[in-house]
Specification:
This protein starts with 7 loop residues before the first strand and ends with a helix. Strand 4 and strand 5 form a beta hairpin. Helices cover 31% and strands 28% of the residues. The chain has 2 domains: 35 residues, no CATH class; 37 residues, no CATH class. The protein is an alpha+beta fold. It has 2 helices and 5 strands, in the order βββαββα. It is elongated and about 60 Å long.
Length: 80
């Protein structure tokens, strides 16, 4: 069933106080975006696989994350 589901759903409040499924509308301030959990996890894993080594250092035998990983991860996940 997940194969036929869209990666993201967008809901918008209509005049009757209920929510309607819609295509994304950047002008709609009431719109809410929902992302499938498996799609999010798959995208996060791809970021780690492709970029993880750029953000990890070993200092005194401990793994340390470099600065910038949070911003870069956020930008990657939010990007299309």
């Amino acid at each position: 069933m997940k194969a036929n589901a869209p990666e993201k759903l967008y809901l918008s409040k209509n005049i009757y106080g209920t929510y309607l499924y819609q295509v994304p509308d950047p002008e709609d301030e009431t719109a809410v975006e929902y992302t499938r959990t498996d799609a999010f996890i798959e995208k996060a894993c791809k970021f780690i696989k492709d970029n993880g080594s750029h953000y990890i250092d070993i200092v005194n035998g401990q793994l340390v994350l470099k600065k910038g990983i949070i911003n870069d991860f956020r930008n990657y996940i939010e990007g299309e």
